[in-house]
Amino acid sequence: MKQLFLFFTFLICTNLIHSQENLPTDYLSKEFHEGRREAFRNLMPANSVAVIFSYPERVFSRDINYNFHQNPDLYYLTGYKEPDAVLFIFKEIQNIGADSYNEVFFVRERNAAREIWTGRRLGVEGTKAKLGISTVYNGGDFKDFTIDFKKFSKIIYDKIPNDITNDTSGFDLFGLLQTFKVKAGINQEDPASLGTFYDITSTLREIKTPEEVDLMRKSVRLSCVAHNEVMKAINTEMSENEADGIHAYIHRKYGAEGEGYPPIVGVGANGCILHYGENNSTKMNNQLLLMDVGSEYHGYSADVTRTIPANGKFTEEQKAIYQLVYDAQEAVFKICKEGTPLIDLNTTAREVLANGLLKLGIIKNREEVKIYYPHGCSHFLGLDVHDKGNFKGAKTALKENMIITVEPGIYIPANSNCDKKWWNIGVRIEDDILIKKDSYENLSAESPRKWEEIEKLASEKSTFNELKLPKI
Ligand SMILES: [Mn+2]
Fold this sequence. Notes:
Number of domains: 2
CATH topology of the largest domain: Creatine Amidinohydrolase
Domain Aminopeptidase P N-terminal: 28-166
Helix content: 25-40%
Radius of gyration: 25 Å
Bound molecules: manganese (II) ion
Number of strands: 18
Organism: Flavobacterium geliluteum
Strand order of the largest sheet: 6-5-4-1-7
Distance between the termini: 67 Å
Keywords: Aminopeptidase, Hydrolase, Manganese, Metal-binding, Protease
């Protein structure tokens, strides 16, 4: 009987596994996610339970949602990519009746009718088979599931969103959150729980495992190919949106799901807006183009910025600012290794930029550097473009297998208090750096940074120059 049951389970699973063909084969393995859950459990205090919800779905247009993006913490711990789910990780083994487990995962129920409309669902059996989690139930089972939250010394959870839709089923994210709050007796978020959750996920995620480094390498490399192709394709008649589109095409050509953040593609004055996102200037003319664009590959975000002249040649002023930002970046690279305090990265960049701006006569005293360099030099990079990491002040130092950005910049908007020959020059150069014991590896080295090399690449032809489409 048991064999027969196993046979049918196998059939169902096989059916599920084969239900979608030609999927990528380089997703994180279930062993990776299992290892991360175990590492998470090791950092939990005694007699505690951690609760990790999926992200909410968000409306794009009336009854159409944005493409769903999973909560990176839940993805990291499970590989599950669907909404309406909640994971419980227990520090100790729980024995309820005949059942024994140290994690329980509630997922979206399979529903043939809904799946025709909104896509395949892994369901309970698929989650067990593909993600290797053994205790899995439908979200609808959570309400009657016995978890006595009062017996735990600590319940660890992340911020609870209060602006999500309620499909009234009781087992969408809204229903799961409500049920959790009632069961756990939570009326108000406990800052200590949020703090513990952040500390644990940051401690894990700030150090990349070899599997993660492989995916990061891929994400960053293919983003570099995209930057290089735009450098070749660029011309004064191109629109910001078209440059954005070339990035997007190349990302997808290499199998990336999309971009890790809204692309910043800004010419001239637009390049001086730090998080410019309209990308709607119809012509580049003879301006500088700042492109801060990175792919998301299997969850992992690249974050690469290149600044290039649309006509292929830097002016003297553009070159002077560009070289200064380049020098700042080089100075920071030199101290990229385990043990360097994180704040030294920004201090070093600011020092070089302040000296340079003084020399060019753009500022009168060192303090004014923050007018033209208003942001920091580095952030962690990974599943989130501004990835989680434990920054605890001046003593926090770089560690082996962290991945950070190094991204100095200078932005001189029109009407700045300097010679107007500098106006509307915005330059940022951003690379993705893997920290090693005594050195670093620049994962984005495939895209040129030296102004001479950029001009050389810009003089080459791109396959996109040959693309002929009808006029409309
Ligand atoms: Mn960045």
